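User: For documentation purposes, I need each entry recorded in a consistent format: the amino acid sequence on its own, followed directly by the corresponding structure tokens. There are two entries in this batch. Please keep commentary to a minimum and don't merge the entries.

Assistant: Recorded as requested. Entry 1:
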Amino acid sequence: MNQFSQIYHAQLVGGKTWRVSVIPENLAIDFDLYIFDPQGNEIAKDASNEPDAYCTFTSLIDGVYQFKVESPDESCAFTIKVDPVSILFSRLYHHRLPSGTSWSVAVIPSEPNVDFNLYIESPEGEQLTQDSSPNADAYCTFTTTVEGVYSFRVESLKGVSDYNFKLQPLSNS
């Protein structure tokens, strides 16, 4: 197994929202993306099993941000893009959830020409997972490790649409 890792840097202006995209030429290779602020704190990640990786984040301060691209399998040619975006809509949900349960969360729009993102945070405020792909819908799974109030943020970067927000248990651990 040949693991691949590469770090890229970009000087970003504070107060803007950005989408970082990693798109491989070979869709059989899984790429992950980790984003770090100028102090070295991880602020966003996409470590899904999908070949491409997308993260959307807001740069809170001016500075050099790091984008770490990894593949647990091997390397292939890919494109990385950092583009400014505008948030058209944002809504925050809070749900008290028990510990030790796996959950699926889906944001399903009624219109096809939108781009919904989904961000999930633990009761401690740690980002657990996100779906910031350019797809119309957003879907995540996660497992609760503590009982508490979890936060779910839905954002639209393209278009506005009614949507269904579905939070369902998958299994008890």
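Entry 2:
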Amino acid sequence: MKRRIKGDVASVTIPANLRPTESNDMNVEKSSTVLAMIVLLAISSIYSSVVQAEQGCPDGFVPNAVPTGIPGQNQCIPGPPQGDGSGSGYSSMASHHDGHGAFAFDSAAMAVGASDIKTAFARSWQAKWSALRSCKKNGGSDCKIIATFENECAAAVLGAADSSNAKATVYVGKGPSIDAAQYDAEQRCKATGSPVCKVAYSDCAMPWQD
């Protein structure tokens, strides 16, 4: 007579050559051990497949357990967004930008230019380009960048190279505020003995976030 082990998820038939016989106790013991291993492997394999089919969810989804007492299987619902936990799915960390500014000067034409004070420049070359454009707009034809500044304030003071007042030049001062930058530039100008020290431009290029 064939013996079967039945369950909800597996049914295993005992092979004829593994049935215990009265003539060989050792064979009976070995057959019982092998039989038990076969049954356990079969049940474990089928149960694992069932669990994976019922609880496995695609990427980005998580199982949503059915409340106790209500028939039905678990459902896969969208998982929490990957990010900072704010619920948006995107990081709330703001981008940091360094502020840049520049001054340009054409000594022959006595033209001074500065980067646009109404524009925040995140790159030094942008500020330089704006300063050169400003200098040419003010009548310069051979404008040169004479100073750049980053995350601070700066001032350009027009004066003489020395006390003889024979050659004009620009003195640049820097500081945490416009007043501090202007004071620094004026002190540099006066230190040379220049009879004239006039503020031409002043601006602050401070860092910002967006």
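Summary note for entry 2:
The two ends are 81 Å apart (CA to CA).
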